[in-house]
Amino acid sequence: MEEFHKVRRLPPYVFEEVNRKKAAARARGVDIIDLGMGNPDLPTPSFVVDKMCEVIRDPRTHRYSASKGIAGLRKAQAGYYARRFGVKLNPDTEIVATLGSKEGFANMAQAITAPGDVVLCPNPTYPIHAFGFLMTGGTIRSIPARPDEEFLRAVDRAVRHSIPKPIAIILNYPSNPTAYEADLDFYREIVAFAKKHEIILLSDLAYAEIYFDGSPPPSVLQVEGAMDVAVEFTSMSKTFSMPGWRVGFAVGNQRLIAALARVKSYLDYGAFTPIQVAAAAAINAGDDIVRDARDIYRHRRDVLVESFGRSGWDVPPPSSTMFAWVPIPERYRDMGSLEFSKLLIEKADVAVAPGIGFGEHGDDFVRIALVENEHRIRQAARNIRRFLASEENAGQKVSAAGA
User: Fold this and answer.
1) What domain range is 122 assigned to?
2) Same domain, yes or no, for 222 and 301?
3) Which of 46, 97, 240, 377 has the fewest CB atoms within 10 Å, i.e. is most exposed?
4) What band does 401 get if pLDDT is binned at 50, 70 and 90?
């Protein structure tokens, strides 16, 4: 039977192949160290859980909530942007609470995209950045992921040569999966470009608080005039270790936020009210919780870089996010990231995310997530070392036999 039109537009979900291999190994009793999915293992702060339990006892909170988010949650997010970025937001017209940043991105695509519209999207990038628009009938044109002059030249070429002209540019810094970071100078240039050509900027800032070296990552909305063209998406999943709670935000340009709010009003009633109240309490608590999580991820990063390096696989240290974007060892690069990821499960009992899942320009890499404690990371490194040594010995034996 023929697949439905929108389903046909989506390529096979490559991560599922890795997941199936991982599940089969675990069914055989194999201890797989899972560094693939970016699923935080840190517990949600206890006071956040306590707040939800307190509010959930009030039966009035069991009724339908507000699709754009309760007022207290939107005010808390406005307070965060004022403290962290010095950006003033109107909670009523410039903020919508979303069911995680992924849902916000997908529904923004629904709100602004007509069939055939062109969107400029980094490659590699987080899948929803492209597929959210593909599912709405849009067309994706890939641009480089690194925020530099090449990126700016690529968007300029795209505007001059794409028919129709692109409607939006996706930004994602700190980036998932590459951990690239943008500075305010880059944002100033891209905002000026977007305003000149009347193009929307959609910025994914989910990893704003997971940084290790240097200054905290900025927001594009810090740039003068950005509110005229930009909407930014954030998430509580990583910052507050609340991935299953599904709380995120879209903030910025009033017209775009109104369009997103209208689409959402037809699709959902927002997150469960006790979840929203607890989320507001988390944001209003300040930065101590976030600092603790950041310190844990920094330590795990250091352990990953050190232990994998000693195993024979060099890991470039990410300066932000909870991911390392790691080149496949040279001798395995020709097999591609999907087959290499499957080989690691089979031979080393370690799961990673194949770079091809983030775009074809990611196929020489895998993404390693900092979602296991330091002891498990060191165990993964030992498994990797044994795997690499056995493969090298096997290669030497073949060479000797050939001689």
Assistant:
1) 47-284
2) no
3) 46
4) very low
